[in-house]
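Troubleshooting: if your tokenizer reports a length mismatch, compare your output against this known-good record of 276 residues.
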Amino acid sequence: MDRPARLSPHPVLRATALTARYPSGADGSPRTALSDVSFELHAGERVALVGPNGSGKSTLLFVLAGARRPDAGSVRVGDGTREPSTDPARLRGRDLARLLGLVFQNPELGFVGRTCAAEVAASLPAIGRPADPADPAVRAALAAFGLEALATEDPFRISEGEQRRLGIAATSIARPAILLLDEPTFALDRRATEAVIGLLDRLRSDGRAQLMATHDPRLIPACDRAVALDGGRVVFEGTAAAFLVDPPYRPADPWRDAAPRSDGSATDALPAGRGP
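Known-good structure output:
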């Protein structure tokens, strides 16, 4: 895994005191999904966003992507060369696509193309190009993600691992500075998971930041840092190694099993930097 030699001088994303609420119950009383959440993300950095079901991970990704406005607090994004100052909720079209990309837990639910090539091409208008499946950029993206042979296949008839890779390919064609991923290895076996992480390693080597919401302990050693949520609050923020040594959840065994041993190996960690 290629970690950045040093962090960029300024974050590409800064979340400050985020609070988000949803109506809940018959009386419509509010339920707090996020409470005073703050953290930063730097170029070339990969951060794991972890927490039990209902802890606020998906809500946080939607707020960071500008798809949902927080009830309090702020999100600012930028290119890492200066202090981030752009509210993603105010961005549209190509401006948003070049800064932020969001890959859903089930990317197939958002597929609009009748072929894999058409699905990737559907993202081209966001960067000012026609949605042409024959565009060389589409072929290049499919090849980079090991999907070239599936260009004319129905995206709903390929495997789950291939659908994950297609979702990332379609999102990354605009080369966003920040990639937000919701459970990128959900329901994938070890081989498919290694393929997805290998592809994300390639994107990361270009300096793109990645925030991955995950329940998968195998991904933590492949990250620089971890941000842990519980009840909508940050209960841990630090290095991935520190999280694995003393995770803030009980039972902790699933997370500790992924921690490197004294010989550098891990019980169930993924090998870093493996391609498809």
